[in-house]
Specification:
about 240 residues; Rossmann fold; seven-stranded mixed β-sheet; 7 strands; binds S-adenosylmethionine
């Protein structure tokens, strides 16, 4: 067990329909995330998906860039069961966040996609990830829900209406500082999800018009690359 336990163990994060819709809605963004990472060949690599829900991201990643071993963690136990049931024969396991021991289980790469806004203590999260990455391991954080996104305050109310854990407003600077304070080297870019984006005008849970979708997927999605073991730069170097 880790020393920083997250006690929540809801069955699911959203309703059955909500999680199915999320999986469909997130696929273009997962593809963009995989396109944007520096590491092209994941052969021999171990990967962690933090906040994996039903496991769709790791299934897609394995399909596009097969890796040696993957673990998905979440708090939602029924969603984890779904992930386990649907994994097929890919080398992945799913478990509750508290059950991922450190440092025995160390990863080359870690990912989280649309999870950071559900974590109240970013420095504790940075420590959790740091303890589970190999030396010079990389953590990619894809996030569209943060203080500077003008859609966020409205979405926060939506999320609050169903999520078993309260959403939190972090700024991009909060995220960068939390990881810098834990010794990570921080870099950041826009995550552009180009091409045709599926849009259902009858589903207004998050989006009220196509421009919101376009702006979200091409302007507001941000990708952080957090590198463990930051090398201190000498003054003047
Ligand atoms: C918006 S969903 C994103 C799911 C998935 N990453 C995706 O891209 O579809 C957020 C996920 O984070 C999980 N989550 C919430 N709090 C968490 C925590 N403290 N630790 C791990 N996962 C958490 C939720 O249960 C949910 O599955």
């Amino acid at each position: 067990m880790s020393t920083e336990q997250v006690t929540a163990r809801p069955a699911t994060w959203d309703s059955d329909q909500g999680e199915a819709d999320m999986e469909k809605g997130h696929e273009p963004s997962w593809r963009a995330l995989i396109e944007h990472i520096d590491e092209r060949d994941l052969c021999g690599k171990s990967v962690l998906d933090y906040g994996c829900n039903r496991g769709g991201f790791l299934r897609l990643l394995y399909d596009l860039r097969s890796f040696e071993r993957g673990v998905g963690v979440d708090i939602a136990v029924q969603s984890l069961d779904d992930a386990e049931r649907r994994k097929g024969d890919i080398p992945v396991t799913y478990k509750h966040v508290d059950e991922l021991t450190a440092p025995d289980d160390a990863f080359d790469l870690a990912f989280s996609h649309e999870v950071i806004y559900l974590l109240p203590d970013l420095e504790a999260h940075a420590r959790y990830i740091k303890q589970r990455l190999k030396e010079s391991g990389i953590y990619y954080i894809a996030i569209g829900e943060y203080a500077e996104n003008p859609l966020w305050e409205r979405w926060k109310e939506t999320v609050s209406s169903f999520s078993p854990v309260s959403p939190v407003t972090h700024s991009l600077q909060d995220i960068a500082l939390a990881f810098r304070n834990e010794g990570f080297d921080v870099s950041v870019r826009r995550m552009v999800c180009d091409g045709f984006l599926p849009y259902d005008p009858t589903d207004t849970k998050y989006l009220q018009n196509p421009m919101e979708l376009i702006k979200f997927m091409t302007e507001y999605m941000i990708l952080f690359r957090m590198e463990k073991n930051r090398v201190e730069k000498k003054p003047g170097a």
